Amino acid sequence: MDGFKSVPVQMLADGSILNLEPYRNNYSPYSRVHEVGPAVGGEEVLVDTYYGLAYDRWIQDGGAPYGLTDMIPAEPLDGFATGFLRVPFARIPCFPAADLASLAAMIERIRQIDPALKLLFRGQDSEHTLGRNSETLQLLYGGEVMEPSLLPSAERRNINIDAVGPTWCGFLRYILDHCCPS
């Protein structure tokens, strides 16, 4: 399966250190897992390297453990969406904004529906997806979906964060101390 790696079950005990979910076989209530499993057991688990989720081999039989998009209950903003991105156990509505005016109009519509909603903007200038193969998407989601890459661009470009992190933090501290006095 695309994006999965077989690892010994014992590695789950060190889950947080290795960015692995310590529990295995998590699946959405909006899946068809009851048709294929889950059966627990074995010396190894398959880990989704993008999300750190671990599964026994039954996941290779499908069942859409991450949930079927059309089965996930609609949210108030879904009516404005032009489509959905998919991540495990959730769908994310997409709202097109070609310019600043259309972005401001969409934000205003969202605030009318839910004034308390917190919005996060990533600042991407292009779409980044995981690019999993069709077979894996079918097994995980029950069909073709757009699965976003949530990795920062530094990670996608293989920049060693440990090498630049201290310098970046020092630069930010300098800016905050000298340019933004409290």
Structural class: alpha+beta
From the N-terminal CA to the C-terminal CA, the straight-line distance is 52 Å
Q: Which strand-content bin applies to the residues?
A: 5-15%
Q: Give the overall average pLDDT.
A: 83
**Biggest sheet: strand arrangement:** 1-2-3
- What's the helical proportion of residues? 25-40%
Rg, Cα atoms, Å:
20 Å
Write down how many β-strands occur, each being a DSSP E stretch of 2 or more residues.
5
Order of H and E elements: EHEEEEHHHH
Secondary structure tally, helices:
5
Write a brief structural summary.
The chain is 27% helix and 13% strand. The protein has 182 residues and is an alpha+beta fold. The model has no long low-confidence stretch (mean pLDDT 83).
